[in-house]
Amino acid sequence: MRKYCFSLLAAIFLLFSFAMNAQAADDSIDDQASLLTAEEVLQLNEAIRPIEAKTKSRIFIVTNTDNDLDSTRFADYYMLDRIGKNQNGVTFYIDMNQRKFIISTSGNMIDYLDDKRIENTLDDIEPSMKSGNYFQAAQSFLENTSHYFDQGVPGGHYRVDTETGKITRYKALTTTEIIIAFVAAIVLSGIFFTVSISKYQLKFGTYKYPFREKSSLDLTRRNDTLINSFVTTRRIPRNNSNGGSGGGGSSTHSTGGGTFGGGGRSF
């Protein structure tokens, strides 16, 4: 009976999780401008579901015709209202009033979609936007987001706050680096252990180091007197180069207390 109840609870939990994931994807598209057909919305929702599952991020596609706010700020605030400050997410926003399309990133997606990758994604989207094929533009956005997440955070990645100029660098270990470090640690530990045993020929549980016979203490009295002290300061010039050993950078800004990345263009 207890086993049956446990199985029933597990099944209910799995069904609840599936329902929550399905609901998350189903509310990812907010087509206020009616640029997409019902079938296209369904296809995009199906494409969003696995991307959200593997990125642990929310993906939004938003359109409207009546926005008077700066397009980038609108996309930021939209995501801020949906998921909160600095949570993982990406928004593709089509502003039909100002004829702009925007990609806004938040949380760890700022690092996966750095400036270069954003520009490449906008390059892929732009022809479809100019031809009025908004469904294809949304598909290109999703395909690029999925592809770049699979590529991982670029080596030598850093963030640049466009408002303060502050640069924050990140070190992301690759799977290969982790495996090499783990194997090296095991090998070195084994070598050290073997050498120690061979050198001292220790017998576990019976050996005792004769610390009294082999130790000594020699105390010497010494007085130090501070005569004077000098402090020298100099200005270190800022390195204006944004290069990072082949790594990619993400420009960030603040909206509503949250940090966002991304980019956009007119069409």
Structure summarized in a few sentences:
The chain is built from eight helices and eight strands; from the N terminus they run H-E-H-E-H-E-E-H-H-H-E-E-H-H-E-E. It is of the alpha/beta class and 267 residues long.
Description:
With about 270 residues, this protein is of the alpha/beta class. The protein has a domain at about 20-155 and about 255-265: Diaminopimelate Epimerase, Chain A, domain 1 (Roll). It is about 45% helix and about 20% strand. It has helices at about 1-25, 40-55, 70-85, 110, 115-130, 135-150, 175-200, 210-215; strands at about 30, 60-65, 90-95, 100-105, 160, 165-170, 250-255, 260-265. The chain has an 8-stranded mixed beta sheet, with helices on both faces. Helix 1 (about 1-25) packs across helix 2 (about 40-55), helix 2 (about 40-55) runs parallel beside helix 6 (about 135-150) and helix 5 runs antiparallel to helix 6. The termini are far apart.
- CATH topology assignment of the domain at 20-155 and 255-266: Diaminopimelate Epimerase, Chain A, domain 1
Q: What would the average pLDDT be, to the nearest integer? A: 82
CATH architecture of the domain at 20-155 and 255-266: Roll
Give start-end ranges of low-pLDDT stretches.
Answer: 8-24, 232-246
Distance between the termini: 64 Å
Indicate the radius of gyration in whole angstroms: 29 Å
Strand content: 15-25%
Keywords:
TPM_dom, transmembrane, elongated, 47% helix, 267 residues, signal, transmembrane helix, Diaminopimelate Epimerase, Chain A, domain 1, alpha/beta, membrane
